[in-house]
Specification:
alpha+beta; Protein Transport Mog1p, Chain A; 2 domains; seven-stranded antiparallel β-sheet; two-stranded antiparallel sheet; 42% helix; elongated; disordered N terminus
């Protein structure tokens, strides 16, 4: 409920064209429901939720750091897109250069949340039965998983991924040439608690 209220307030500040579309969908949902056209009302409500999630995504994007340690954000790489359906809205920013590139992505209503939460809450999965390339971590007080994904053919570079569940969203940080220590330093520059509060 808090998420809807925050997003609704944010909608008031977006461009008038988007605000008019929001109002149009709200009116369509109300009239369709009153007329007993439930499929039309449902579709209009889905459009409203998508608009709210995209607006929320733009607010979250403002919290993304401009740099991850020494990696600067790539100009024009910011992307907020998707739908409120199966996978949800994706909020993405890239950092660095081709040789040393990182990507920060948050997916609202990610289908991967349940399996990650099971991994994080189960000592058997997390410690004994899990992947030897994965381990439990904490970033700004939030539990997460660090995974060593691949080693280059020349054995000189390693790719890592950090996944952190945030309420109803999944934060993922990936880097194509990194170390465990560097990944944790990158992750600790992300305002995880502020983002988590916006998502509630």
């Amino acid at each position: 409920m808090k998420k809807i209220i925050i997003a609704f307030i944010a909608v008031l500040f977006i461009s008038s064209a988007q605000a008019q579309e929001f109002k149009k969908n709200l009116a369509t949902a109300q009239t369709s429901y009153a007329a007993g056209k439930l499929q039309d009302a449902h579709f209009a409500l889905q459009q409203i939720m998508q608009d709210l999630d995209i607006t929320l995504g733009k607010e979250i994007m403002k919290l993304y750091p401009a740099t991850l340690d020494s990696l600067k954000a790539i100009a024009n790489s910011d992307n907020v897109s998707g739908s409120s359906g199966f996978a949800g809205v994706s909020i993405q920013r890239q950092y660095g250069s081709e040789n040393h590139k990182a990507e920060l992505n948050i997916v609202i209503n990610s289908p991967l949340l349940n399996s990650l939460n099971a991994y994080l809450s189960s000592p058997i999965l997390g410690a004994f039965g899990g992947d030897p390339n994965s381990k439990l971590i904490k970033v700004n007080g939030q539990k997460g998983r660090l995974t060593k994904e691949s080693v280059s053919e020349d054995q000189k570079t390693t790719s890592y991924r950090i996944e952190i569940p945030l309420s109803n969203a999944l934060l993922t940080l990936q880097c194509n040439s990194s170390s465990e220590k560097e990944m944790l330093a990158f992750a600790n520059t992300i305002p995880v608690s502020q983002i988590s509060q916006l998502l509630q």
